[in-house]
C-alpha cells in the first residue's frame, strides 16, 4: 500500500504550481472529473448528461454594468450557449450587449420550444437560426451553442471567436476553430447587411467520453488564457476539492469562477505573454500582455446520467479521480499496489503535488 499524506507542504506546492507555465502535470494525467466506467464513448446507448455551471465577469463600466457578453445554461436539456456583443457599435451609441442578451434568451426559448415539439431532441443549428430570426436589437454578436445529443455526441454551432475546448485526462483534445474576417474582427451575427448569417456557423460534431470537461467561453477567456493554464486550473480545482473535502468534486460553477478569475488577472497583466499578444504579433501588431474584456466561462462535466443514483456518500467518494482503487479519505490518498497504467499516472501526479509525502509499501 502506498500512502501520500496531505500536509502543509502540499498546500505550498499547490500555491507554487499556480504560476503559469510551471506545469506540474507532465505526462498523462487522470481525468479531473472521472466517473465509474470512465472512457465510455458516445453512441454506446448509455445515457450521458452535461452538468454545467458558469461565471461572468463583465468589465468595469458604470454605463454598461451588464457588459456585452451573454450566456445561458439549460441543465435539463444538456445545452449551453455564449455570445459576445461586438464592442465597435459603442461608437454609434449602440449597446451590442442588448443584441447578445436577446440572442441568448431567444436561444433558451428555442431549446424549450424544440423540446416541447420533439420530446427530447435539441438541434443547435435550429436554435441559432430560430434565435437569430427573433433577435431584432441593433448590434451584432458572436455565438457558440453546444448540446449533448441523444446519441451522446457533442453537437455545436459556432460563429466567430467565442468557442470551447474539451479537456480529457487533463489535456485539451479539441478546440473549436475561430472564424474571423481579419485580425480582431470575428464573424458576427446581426441584422444589417454587412453581418454574418447563421448559415456561416461552423457545425461541430464530436464524440465525448465520461469524465471529459468542456470549457466554453468568450474571447475574454481565450485571449487571456493559454490552453495549458485552463487545463491546470481545472485539474487543480479537482485535486484541491478531493483533498479538502474527503473526495469531493468541485461544482462546475466553482471551476468556471476560478478560470474566469485567472483570465481577469491575466487581462490586467502587462508583462506576461497571452494568446492575444501572440495573435497580435502574428498579425503584425504590437500588443503586450492581456486584453481587458468581458469574461464568460461555462464549465460542463460529461457524466453518466444516473451517476449519483444509488451511490452512498462513501462510494461516491471512492469514485473520485476516475481511478478505481484510489481513495481520498481524511486528506489521505490511498492507492492499491497492483495497479494499471492510469493509476500509476495518478500516483506520479500526486507525488509531484506532495513531494514530501510519506510512502509505505
Ligand atoms: Mn469579448
Automatic annotation (TrEMBL):
InterPro entries: PPM-type-like_dom_sf, PPM-type_phosphatase-like_dom, PPTC7. One of its GO terms (molecular function) is protein serine/threonine phosphatase activity. It is an enzyme of class 3 (hydrolase). It comes from the Eukaryota. Keywords: Hydrolase, Magnesium, Manganese, Metal-binding, Protein phosphatase. Its EC number is 3.1.3.16. Residues 54-302 form the PPM-type phosphatase domain. Coiled coil: none annotated. Gene3D superfamilies: PPM-type phosphatase domain. Its cofactor is Mg(2+); Mn(2+). It catalyses: O-phospho-L-seryl-[protein] + H2O = L-seryl-[protein] + phosphate; O-phospho-L-threonyl-[protein] + H2O = L-threonyl-[protein] + phosphate. Belongs to the PP2C family. This is Protein phosphatase. It comes from Macleaya cordata (Five-seeded plume-poppy).
Amino acid at each position: 500500500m502506498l500512502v501520500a499524506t496531505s500536509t502543509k507542504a502540499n498546500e505550498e506546492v499547490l500555491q507554487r504550481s499556480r504560476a503559469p507555465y510551471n506545469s506540474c502535470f507532465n505526462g498523462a494525467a487522470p481525468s479531473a472529473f472521472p466517473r465509474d466506467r470512465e472512457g465510455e464513448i458516445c453512441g454506446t446507448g448509455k445515457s450521458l448528461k452535461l452538468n454545467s455551471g458558469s461565471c461572468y465577469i463583465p468589465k468595469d463600466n458604470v454605463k454598461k454594468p451588464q457588459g456585452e457578453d451573454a450566456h445561458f445554461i439549460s441543465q435539463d436539456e444538456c445545452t449551453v450557449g455564449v455570445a459576445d456583443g461586438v464592442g465597435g457599435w459603442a461608437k454609434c451609441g449602440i449597446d451590442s450587449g442588448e443584441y447578445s442578451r436577446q440572442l441568448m434568451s431567444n436561444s433558451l426559448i428555442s431549446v424549450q420550444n424544440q423540446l416541447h415539439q420533439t420530446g427530447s431532441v435539441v438541434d443547435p443549428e435550429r436554435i441559432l437560426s430560430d434565435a437569430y430570426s427573433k433577435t431584432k436589437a441593433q448590434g451584432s454578436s458572436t455565438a457558440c451553442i453546444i448540446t449533448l445529443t441523444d446519441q451522446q455526441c457533442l453537437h455545436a454551432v459556432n460563429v466567430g471567436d467565442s468557442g470551447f475546448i474539451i479537456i480529457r485526462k487533463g489535456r485539451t483534445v479539441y478546440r473549436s476553430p475561430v472564424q474571423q474576417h481579419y485580425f480582431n474582427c470575428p464573424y458576427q451575427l446581426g441584422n444589417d447587411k454587412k453581418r454574418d448569417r447563421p448559415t456561416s456557423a461552423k457545425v461541430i460534431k464530436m464524440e465525448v467520453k465520461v469524465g471529459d470537461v468542456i470549457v466554453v467561453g468568450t474571447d475574454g477567456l481565450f485571449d487571456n488564457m493559454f490552453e495549458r493554464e485552463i487545463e491546470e486550473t481545472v485539474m487543480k480545482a479537482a485535486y484541491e476539492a478531493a483533498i479538502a473535502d474527503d473526495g469531493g468534486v468541485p461544482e462546475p460553477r466553482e471551476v468556471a469562477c476560478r478560470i474566469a478569475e485567472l483570465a481577469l488577472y491575466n487581462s490586467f497583466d502587462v508583462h506576461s505573454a497571452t494568446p492575444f499578444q501572440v495573435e497580435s504579433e502574428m498579425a503584425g501588431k504590437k500588443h503586450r500582455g492581456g486584453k481587458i474584456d468581458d469574461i464568460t466561462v461555462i464549465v460542463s462535466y460529461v457524466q453518466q446520467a444516473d451517476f449519483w443514483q444509488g451511490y452512498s456518500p462513501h462510494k461516491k467518494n471512492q469514485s473520485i479521480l476516475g481511478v478505481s482503487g484510489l481513495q481520498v479519505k481524511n486528506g489521505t490518498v490511498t492507492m492499491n499496489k497492483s495497479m494499471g497504467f492510469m493509476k500509476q499516472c495518478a500516483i506520479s501526479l500526486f507525488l509531484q503535488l506532495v513531494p514530501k509525502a510519506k510512502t509505505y509499501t
